[in-house]
Structures are given as C-alpha cells and as structure tokens.
Amino acid sequence: MWTVADPTDPIRQEPRVRTDLALLAGYHSPQVDVDVRLNTNEAAQPPPQAFTADLQAALAGLTLNRYPDRGAVRLRTAIGDRYGMNVSQVFAANGSNEAIQALLLAYGGAGRTAAVFEPTYAMHSQIARITGTRVVGTARRQDFSLDEGLLGELVAAERPDVMFMCSPNNPTGLVDPDGLVLAALEMLAPHGGLLVVDEAYGQFSQSSAVDLLSEDRSLVVSRTFSKTWAMAGLRLGYLLGPTWCVTELEKVALPYHLDAIKQEAGTLALAYGEEMQKHVGTIVAERQRLSALLSELPVTVWPSQANFVLFRPETMPASRVWEGLLERSVLVRDFSSAEGLDGCLRVTIGTQSEDDRFLVALREVLS
Ligand SMILES: Cc1ncc(COP(=O)(O)O)c(C=O)c1O
C-alpha cells in the first residue's frame, strides 16, 4: 500500500535527474475545456468521412497480435510517391516532433550544437536540449524576417551541426524565401552542418524547400499529418531527405515505433489528397477573412502563410486579453512573455463560426 511520503524518512530520496534537464521547463500549452479552441493550430474540421469509413474497415483486417512492419514501407512509399521521392528518402515518425528528435539524436547530442532563429517553434531548442545538444541562436529582425548576414556570422562563429529554419515560421506565420535556404546551405556546407526546414505548415503557403532536396545536399524537410491532413490525434509526421540521412535516422528510432493503425491511417489518408487540398483552400480563404477583420481592431496583425495569425493588442496588456477571451470560452495562445514576442497572441484559424465567436469576444474584451 502507498502511504503519504514522509520527508523525514531516511530512505525517501528522489534520484538525481540530469542537471541540464532539471533546468528545463517542459512544453506548456494549456489543454482547457472551452467552446472554441484556437490555441494549437489543429485543423478545425475532422478528416473526410469517407477516410474515416475506410480506416474503420481497414482496422478489422489488421493483425494486432503481431508487431507492425518495422520499416513502415507501404506508408513511406506512399509519402514518397507524393513528392516523386523513393522510400529510402522518407523517414516516418510519431509526429514531426519525433522526426526532429530522431534527427537530433543522430546529428546532435553531447558536444554538438544546434542553431535556431528566434522567435520560432520552441520545440526545436527544447528537443535539442533534451538530447544534450547545445543550442545557439540569433534573433530575427523586428518584422520577423531572417537577416542573411547574421545567419552567416552565426554559422561562422558556431559551426552548428544542425540548423533549424521553420517556414512558415511558428508563431509568426512568415515564410523564409528559397534563396535564403540555399544561402544557408552554402554557408553550412564547409562545416558539415545539416539544415532542417520545418514545414509543418508548408501546404498552407506557396513556397517550399522540398524542390531543393537532393542526395548531395545536407538538407531535410519535415512535414506532418497534424495540420493539413486534420489528423493531430493520430500523431504522424515525416521527414524527407537524402538516403544517407534517413539511414542514420532509422538507427536511432525504436524498433516498431510506428504502430499498425497509424501506418494504415497514413497510407489511406494519402488517397484523399484532393480533399486535403480543398481543406487547405478553405483555411487559406478563412485566414484572409480573419486577418482583414482583425485589422479593423486596435491590434497589430502580422501577415501569415500558415493556419494561424499572430497579433498584438495595442490598447491592453495581452495577458488580460487572453484571460478575457478565456472567460468567454475562447482559447488562443499567449506568447506575450516569450522573447521577441512582447505582447503577442496567436490565434489558430478555425471554422467561420468559431472565428466569428473569437472576433465577437475580442471586440468585447478590447472595448
Ligand atoms: C513548426 C512546427 N513543427 C512541428 C510541429 C509538431 O507537429 P507534430 O508533432 O504534431 O507533427 C508543430 C506543432 O505545432 C509545429 O508548429
């Protein structure tokens, strides 16, 4: 039987956690039960009904008493086919976060360095630190674009083993132009660094680094089924890159890390590319509508190429706005105390009616 721990008990002692981990805060995005959830950039609508029916039918045929295909070959082949790449150039994982973790296990670690450009997706540096990788960074400009000169200085000074670009960038929504990706590759090449372009929101924008991939470039692109494919609950993401890189990632992945249901779901989903594209079109149109309506309020709005919009209330502290929205059962993401994002909030594009509720609530809070 468990008893309440007695702090004076001489054998009650917590084991020593790694000192670098003890300093880490972990990932914090509150999961609160609200009417309108616009805080984690998920899809507002479920995947197509026909896909769900296909998946239900397929589940009946799965041999769950056996381990799944360790190489997830059918899924990886289907992903590769979408991009004209072959199975050996695709690494699939439990969300793109896990793909990034595999990358850092293989190319980061003790004595190695990862570079990030803040403000950006916090998990790049978080996962780097968890894997014992040193993190260095440089700030983006005031308008959140990346300064090529500063990038060059960072590469020359730190010679990072892994460098992250995030395009469209979370939480700013800005795209890093192809020219910058190529420039970064050129700067990294002499030092043997690997460039990772995180395109979790890639399909919402016109630009992508996928066309720049090749067997002789140290470039990988990560993408996810969580956003455009409306499958955040399934946890499936992938990375496209040279065969030599995927081979290394397979070494650090746990055996059978992708379960049979996920492999089936991902493969089936890819047959619904047209529906996915339609879903993206709806979100992009809704993003334009929401951005335009937001601009009529006393807030600064940043142009976004993703499924979210960053904004800064100008007449009231952001934390009070966030609380006011929550009181009205609308949840957005509060970045107001994050470095470089002073006073900023981020709202995910929802359905038209969810976004209208958000706008009504925001108008009330700001008035
Ligand atoms: C930029 C970026 N990369 C990666 C991810 C992780 O996505 P997932 O692990 O769901 O594929 C997210 C999630 O919000 C993200 O914003």
Ions, cofactors and other bound molecules? pyridoxal-5'-phosphate
Q: Report the sheet-strand fraction.
A: 5-15%
Fill in the CATH topology of the largest domain.
Aspartate Aminotransferase, domain 2
Assembly type of the shown chains? single chain
Largest sheet: 7 strands, mixed
Helix-strand category: alpha/beta
Distance between the termini: 56 Å
Total strand segments: 13
Question: How many helical elements?
Answer: 12
Name the poorly predicted regions.
none
CATH superfamily of the largest domain: Type I PLP-dependent aspartate aminotransferase-like (Major domain)
Series of secondary-structure elements, N-terminal to C-terminal: HEHHEHEHEHEHEEEHHHEEHEEEH
Notable characteristics:
367 residues; 13 strands; 2 domains; 7-stranded mixed beta sheet; globular
Task: Give a description of the structure.
- This protein is an alpha/beta fold and 367 residues long.
- It folds into 2 domains: 19-47 and 274-366, Alpha-Beta Complex (Aspartate Aminotransferase, domain 1); 61-272, Aspartate Aminotransferase, domain 2 (3-Layer(aba) Sandwich).
- Helices cover 38% and strands 15% of the residues.
- The strands form 3 sheets. The protein has a 7-stranded mixed β-sheet with strand order 2-8-7-6-5-3-4, sandwiched between helices. Strands 9-10-13-12 form a 4-stranded antiparallel β-sheet, with helices on one face.
- It is globular, with a radius of gyration of 22 Å.
- The relative contact order is 0.16.
- The model has no long low-confidence stretch (mean pLDDT 94).
- It binds pyridoxal-5'-phosphate.
- Residues 41, 95-97, 121, 166, 170, 198, 200, 224, 226, 232, 237 line the site of pyridoxal-5'-phosphate.
